[in-house]
Amino acid sequence: METSLVPHWRHNIYLFLTSQFLSGITSMVVQYAIIWYLTKQTGSATVLSLATLLGMLPMVLLSPFVGPFVDRWNKKGLLIVPDVIAAIFAIILSIVGTLQATFPLWLIFISLLVRSIAQTFQMPTIQSLLPTMVPTDQLTKINGQLGMVQSANMIISPALGAFLFAIVPMNYLILVDVLGAIIGISLLTFVTIPEHPVIDEKVHVLADAKFGLNKLRNTRGLWAITMIGAAFTLMFMPAASLYPLMTMGYFHGTVGQAGLIEVIYSVGMLGGGAIIGLFGNWRDRMKPIFWATIAMGVTFGGSGFLPGNQTGFIWFAILNVLAGTMTPFYSTLLMAMIQQSFPPDQLGRVLGVLNSLTSVAGPVGLIFAGPLADAIGVEKLFIIGGVGSLLCGLAMWLMPSAREYDQQLQSRLATDTLTSEIKE
């Protein structure tokens, strides 16, 4: 889809990023509030792991089948309808919390599940529509700027969430999600999103999921990177889901300090996203991806060796600045490579399968994470995650197909561009 079909693409994409920024803040405020509520009420690693597990399952189970609909259905509708459904469940949860003294755990879990299903549709939709809204040579930078928007959300949301959590009853705080849905939908109505002719084709769910899987498997280097990413998730996710317990349990901190760690990590992500957004045209993006994986392993694993006191918490905060800075170099650069590897009308199906494969290991790890953390200590899971990240980074570098993937991709894109110019 040529960007020339979308007049004033810069104005259009920045309006879209603004809508994601404003609606994302309110959604994340509620997400943090729910996790902190569970941490404060139960103090259980098993409960937190189960909450995270429910948040990941839709991504694993539904992503391969969501892709075909993303490629064919109206993109704006796929962004709006899930927000409406999530807002309805937020209202239900708020009403029940008002009528009862405490929130039933089962209803909180259902609410988290619905929010995750909504995100399962929205994430590949956003990822697949970006290449249709901006020129190819600006894609890495715009992905970096999207990462900055998401990081800004993650900076503001924990701080705002911790403040509101302290002064606003939980049953009213949940309604912030409804406000976010109204803001996001209102702005999105003014955004122009290109659609593809394939939108009216009949969806064959299993055949299309198989199509996406075959496309990914036949892209040799990217397939290796995907498998390494799945292993990375298996090692990294269990401890990442227990950040609030690490702060409030191991370091004996407060909800405010749990929010501070989220803010600090996100400030680092914002800095990393800013670097990518300004200087995003690397000749070989696999090199920064490799070093980001190594750096995350060192900082994450190092956190597990810190003493369980306030001095340890200060060092934990410092390590999270570094880890946050490196995170976009892995996620953002990898997503830009994926987006450039497939035609826009196939991207939704490929991303659906890819998101499922890289996420499937998360629930497997989370099943054991809660009981294991309750038994050996949450800090030990950080050590395990750090060692696992280092091994994944090493594997990525030792496999030539993965290490050289971006060089081959950029060479192919340059050839395609030259061929297209000659034909014109």
- Overall pLDDT level: 79
Query: What's the overall geometry?
Result: globular
Classify the helix fraction into a percent range. Answer: over 70%
The string of secondary-structure elements, in order, is: HHHHHHHHHHHHHHHHHH
Alpha carbon gap, first and last residue:
17 Å
The number of distinct β-strands equals: 0
* CATH architecture label name: Up-down Bundle
* Number of H- or I-type helical stretches: 18
Q: What's the CATH C level? A: Mainly Alpha
Report the sheet-strand fraction.
Answer: under 5%
Looking at CATH, the homologous superfamily is MFS general substrate transporter like domains
InterPro entries: MFS (IPR011701), MFS_dom (IPR020846), MFS_trans_sf (IPR036259)
Subcellular location: Cell membrane
Protein name: Multidrug transporter
Membrane topology: Multi-pass membrane protein
